[in-house]
Amino acid sequence: MMESLLPAWLMPVAASVQAAKVDRIFIGLTIISALIVLLVVGLVVTFSIRYRRGSKADRGPLPEVVSREFEIGWTAATLFVFVFIFWWAASAEITAFSPPKDALEVHIVGKQWMWKAQSSNGAREINELHVPVNAPVRLVLTSQDVIHAFYIPALRLKRDAVPDQTTETWFQATKTGTFQLMCTEYCGTDHARMLGRVIVMEPQDYASWLAAQPEGDDLAHQGERLFSARGCSGCHAPGSSVHAPSLAGIWGQAVQLDGDKRATVDAAYIRDSILQPARDIVAGYAPIMPSYAGLLSDGEIQELTAYIRSLGAGPRVIRTPGVPPLSSRVPGNATERSPAMVPGAPVSDTPAPAGPAVRP
């Protein structure tokens, strides 16, 4: 096991799938750095003794061919090591942006000075995060005020929570227990007290804990109510007299924008559409949607995003007047809700009403 190679005083216990990759990179970089230090120090000591003042060592110039070959070889070796380290570390980091499709989804909001977590099933927590062991967990993070950094040392997980943006990462815990959660981006006076804990439980224990939580709607249903309360249905519900795009089945699809640009409907796109609707306009529609900046909290934007996602992702793209489709419509396509992000939860195939518009 990788953790046996690392003393307890050097690294915390490794408790996730990603931890093994991070530890291998850490050990590799440490070994390479140690070898370089030994080489440099060894040469310095050797030359200091050999060419000390008064020694009879030959101080004449090296043959030109030897010097040239040495420089070429040293430069090539250094370049190879650099490219290898970059590829090795980058490949491990990139995997953090590709969570499994069946991952348990948790929305995290950082604020001075606490962490607020809400699962797609509606369970809410402050400075705590309960997750099942051996199950992938997808985190969607944002900040309510300044930049925070969501860091769980035992899971080797760190991701910034940025105001007015959403960032994502995922992990899969391999050990049960309670692990420390902290903020590693200085965020104000009580930064050092912005602490929490992650409780990794057996699946049956997690199910019992989940059942004991206060009953409440999941994020999608909260977003559905918010969609009506904020007047979004007045423009984007079926039968609306306002010329606005429908959101049924658009999650994950490509949309054609003005200026010959395209975008993919994801959490970041929806957030930008709500806060900065005039930045990218869907082709064929007028820029009439007002900005909701300052009118919606980060939690409400997450609820609307969850609602749009619950409307399903079909194999079609948005059809706009006068703009040819980006791909062909598949016959028989139907809008469906995405499955609940809880292990073993049933999947609903009931079509949901249209959601709030993304970009007018």
Automatic annotation (TrEMBL):
Belongs to the cytochrome c oxidase subunit 2 family. It catalyses: 4 Fe(II)-[cytochrome c] + O2 + 8 H(+)(in) = 4 Fe(III)-[cytochrome c] + 2 H2O + 4 H(+)(out). Keywords: Copper, Electron transport, Heme, Iron, Membrane, Metal-binding, Respiratory chain, Translocase, Transmembrane, Transmembrane helix, Transport. Gene3D superfamilies: 1.10.287.90, Cupredoxins - blue copper proteins, Cytochrome c-like domain. This is cytochrome-c oxidase. It is an enzyme of class 7 (translocase). It is a multi-pass membrane protein. Residues 101-212 form the Cytochrome oxidase subunit II copper A binding domain. It is found in: Membrane. Residues 320-360 are annotated as: Disordered. The chain crosses the membrane at residues 29-51, 72-90.
